[in-house]
Amino acid sequence: MAHYRDDLDAVLLALADPTRRRIVRRLGRGPASVGELARPFEMTLPSFMKHVRTLESSGVIRTSKTGRVRSCVLNRDRLALVDDWLAEQRELWSDRTDRLEAFVTDRHADRATEQKEPS
Amino acid sequence: MAHYRDDLDAVLLALADPTRRRIVRRLGRGPASVGELARPFEMTLPSFMKHVRTLESSGVIRTSKTGRVRSCVLNRDRLALVDDWLAEQRELWSDRTDRLEAFVTDRHADRATEQKEPS
Predict the structure, then answer these.
(1) CA end-to-end span of chain B
(2) A117 CA to chain B: closest CA distance, Å?
(3) Which of A12, A28, A83 shows the shortest C-beta gap to B16?
(4) Using the beta-carbon criterion (under 8 Å), do B25 and A93 form an inter-chain contact?
């Protein structure tokens, strides 16, 4: 559980940046080299590499080197951690709505009974 | 668009912490005062308030003060920003899968034609 939490922290932190989200978006269309990924950004390569490393250490992307080229692929399973957490929250909200509905229905039934019974 | 991106940065950063995610989870069951929220955490009130303020400034929660009590409510719309971003990514992946499928199908059709035609 602690492990899952740490993982989720790292993934959310990695995604909390527009450059890194653009990289994720680009890799959603297929693998790419660091050179290709860096091209649309007005940024030095060392600055760009910091973003790549943050994404890699969070597990959101995987990289591998062949000769002088570093290739990057998206690891969708890591994004699923965020999906799972959000789904868990939605479940809590719907439980709450159900309880609220049951409460309102019960009150309504109670009142109907009260009105029928002589006081 | 820049505004949406900044908002999403703030929401993702706010969620990238286990204490803050526990607060969001608790508020998913209904509004609560800061005192109630702080109770399960082994933390000083000033430290806890920092988390509350991070959540508030990201818009994930709203707070209001009545007398000496500060109440907190969850703002689900802010979490929907994360949902929307994830949905956008999934759409890109499915486009890619569709294109890949079309490519494989085309290659298969090409080969079938090649095999029929005299070389």
Answers:
(1) 55
(2) 34
(3) A12
(4) no
Q: Which residue has the tokens 């607060």?
A: B23
> B85 CB contacts (<8 Å, ≥6 apart)?
A15, A21, B8
What is the C-alpha to C-alpha distance for residues A64 and A79, in angstroms, rounded to an integer?
Answer: 20
Burial-class residue B86 by CB neighbours within 10 Å (0-12, 13-18, 19+): middle
Contact between B9 and A17 using a beta-carbon 8 Å cutoff: yes
CATH number for B2-77: choose from 3.90.1170.20, 1.20.1740.10, 1.10.10.10, 3.40.1280.10: 1.10.10.10
Nearest Cβ partner for A12 among B15, B25, B28: B15
Nearest to B28 among A8, A17, A89 (CB): A89
Spatial separation of the C-alpha atoms in residues A10 and B71, rounded to whole Å: 30
Residues facing residue B66 across a β-bridge: B69
pLDDT band at B118 (very low <50, low <70, confident <90, very high): low
CA A65 to chain centre: 27
What is the reported pTM?
0.82
> With the C-alpha atoms ordered A48, B88, A27, B15, is the resulting torsion angle positive or negative?
positive
pLDDT score, position B77: 94
CA distance B5 to chain A (A): 7
Residues of A in contact with B5 (CB under 8 A): 18, 21
Mean pLDDT of chain B: 89
Binning pLDDT at 50, 70 and 90, where does residue B116 land? low
pLDDT tens digits, B1-42: 456 668 999 999 999 999 999 999 999 999 999 999 999 999
